[in-house]
Design brief:
With 360 residues, the protein is mainly α. The chain has 16 helices and four strands. The chain is elongated, with a radius of gyration of 22 Å.
Amino acid sequence: MSVMFCADRLKVARYRRKLTGKQLAALADLTDVTVSKVENGHQPDDFTAQKLAKALNFPIQFFFMDRPEILEPQAVSFRSLKKMKAAERNASLAAGSMGIALFDWINSRFDLPAPDLIDLSREQSRPDVAARLLRQHWGLGDRPVGNILRLFESKGIRVLSLSENTLNVDAYSFWHADNPYIFLNQMKTAERSNFDAAHELGHLVLHFHAQAESLPDEDAERQANNFASAFLMPDADLKSTLSNVYSSSQIIRAKVRWKVSAMALATRLHQLGMLSDWNYRSIIIDLGQRGYRKSEPLGVEREISTLLAKILSALWSKGITKNEIAEELNMPREEIESLLFGLAGPIRSRPNRSDLTLVR
């Protein structure tokens, strides 16, 4: 614990609350100048620090910890950058800082899987080849991925949730200290979330350590999209499973095999020449009229994090709850809940033998 008030922690907390400096000043009954001076490193007196902490609803101890890991926008691959407002982007980046702190805390207590990703940045112009190479590296063959999150976590990818108040952010990913992170918005459909996860995997291997910043956004996003399509729906499996596709009903029945949206499957079939231009347009129009553009009727079950569920069960067996985690990290409980939202599932009453155990 530091004896100094950390200006960067004030920014992180303010970003999480989606407040401007002026709005925070009004909530804390302080002047704009005071908030600005504190965010620029001026040490506040105890009364001012208490006012800021209360206005932000963060424990006062949070602001007297070491400087947090700060994610810069250019180091992060956002799924939907164009739709985002600055406040949403900053809130998401601040959630990333919180997520790093949470996983550092977990890593100090558990032996987590080591990252097993390969640098495929030389294949940026051939994302379908990159997807095939990664599948070979992981020994997946051409079969559909049974559980995407479980696969990712077994390969050392740290998956967390975005809070539900950032609906315009689909997902984002980044590398930190040689560890890959993916944040998913769990308010989307399960199929959309699956595709988002594979899209972010594409960024992690194609744009290794944020090399995407040297590319136009459209190029990097197109590469990640094509990677996700090829990774989730290998052409050999599609061609051996589907033939003579001509209707949206066939697409809807078939999509369950690859756990993707009907739109994503139709687009992949069109890319592979398995749907003519005319058939593709007709099917997309029909799917839109049937509600598949904004939702996914007859959807698949949402995946949850196997790793986080085991960690929480192991902690629970030692009497450590989310409240204790929040207290140790000096975070509001709601921040822990946001990072785990929709991922951890219910905690089992009794851990299985194969569950993770505390090692430190």
